[in-house]
Amino acid sequence: MKLFLAPIQAMTAACYRNAFAKHFGGIDAYYAPFIAASDIKKVSHKLLKDILPERNDKSVNLVPQLLGNDGDQFKAYAYAISEMGYQEINWNIGCPFPMVTNKKRGSGILPYPDIINKFLETACSGSTYTISVKMRLGLNDTEDGIRVMNILNQYPLSGVIIHARTGKQMYEGKVDLDAFCTLSTECKHEVTYNGDIFTHNDFLSISSRVPHLKNFMLGRGALSDPFLPSSIKGHDVQSTDKVKIVHKFHDEIFEYYKNTLSGDKHLCDKMKEFWDFMHIHLDQDGKLMKKIKKCNRTSDYLEIVSKAFHSDAIWKDS
Ligand SMILES: Cc1cc2nc3c(=O)[nH]c(=O)nc-3n(C[C@H](O)[C@H](O)[C@H](O)COP(=O)(O)O)c2cc1C
What distance in Å separates the CA atoms of residue 218 and residue 3, rounded to the nearest whole number? Predict the structure, then answer.
């Protein structure tokens, strides 16, 4: 069985992935948040900063991701990325945000199998990389996904990751396991399941519905309980050690952003994003997150956080 860390824009950047691999592990490949492929004439190397090999520890198996609907643009970026040493490049056709979908990008492309076909005809003609796809069940309904899969089946993809929701659902409502099963059965490529694995029990109940599947991708569940991937693989960490490990993980990420962001406000805002996920197993009464949200000065932030990690702090196992 393989477990992948889902890309979460603004969270799972290089510093986060490196620290995650060092302190928690359990992940076979880390998918980087999307890079929006734009001007074909001039690949913006600024956009590729996060995936620079010198920023990413060698132990982290990284898969860069591109967002776009133009095969030539994709190809130009994919060549530049493969020159950096990456073999697999993931194509994002799952992003649900209207700013993206209105331009027929992300899950906004799913109702248009012809555009997908044209895109893949060009994008797959590149010889230095392979393409995997991260998709949803459809944009508005799951019929989209079936039509798209018939196209994906015609190309030599290295895998298809399916987030078991439609784009219209955003991140709300339940994952649709029946629709996932139907779509994954149609798929000739290696399929990865993605969506709402927050606990070990979630993993067990979802994987029992799809016993043939070997690949699972975890996003928010792994960000709020970074011990989850290892635990799914059978390596449990003593509850009493968990707070100490998360403390070290936090400090590494805090140090990175302290050295790269300017001003207390930016730093505190960045760390609020971190705590949006991380508070779930540490915040016994909801007060911690409230305090962090109010924080705009680094000194206040550090005081609150040092209390959160005090020696009696308890990690609430799920
Ligand atoms: C804040 C946020 C940012 C995300 N950014 C990306 C992204 O850059 N690329 C992508 O393919 N998916 C992105 N996703 C979707 C996740 O990768 C994943 O598919 C989704 O959260 C469902 O998995 P989960 O229930 O395990 O979190 C994002 C999700 C969230 C909540």
Answer: 7
Give the domain extent around 269: 239-308
From the CA of 7, how far away is ligand 1's center (Å)?
6
SS3 call for 92: strand
N residues, the chain: 318
90 located within any domain: yes
- Quick one: 226 and 291 in the same domain? no
Could you read off the pLDDT of 78-124 as tens digits, one per residue?
999 999 999 999 999 999 999 999 999 999 999 999 999 999 999 99
The residue out of 206, 232, 258 marking a domain boundary is 232
Pair of tokens at residue 181: 């099963």
Model pLDDT for residues 264-311, shown as the tens digit of each residue: 999 999 999 999 999 999 998 889 999 999 999 999 999 999 999 998
The reported pLDDT for the residue numbered 247 is: 98
Residues β-bridged to residue 63: 31
The whole-model pTM stands at 0.98
Residue nearest to atom 28 of ligand 1 (CA): 8
List residues near ligand 1 (CB under 6 A).
Answer: 6-9, 33-34, 65, 92, 94, 134, 163, 171, 194-197, 218-221
Which of 97, 132, 163 has the most ligand 1 atoms within 8 A of CB, as the residue to mutate? 163
Give me the helices (H) in the chain, please: 14-23, 71-83, 98-101, 113-123, 143-152, 177-186, 200-209, 220-224, 228-232, 239-260, 264-278, 287-294, 298-308
User: Helices 71-83 and 113-123, interaxial angle, to 10°?
Assistant: 40
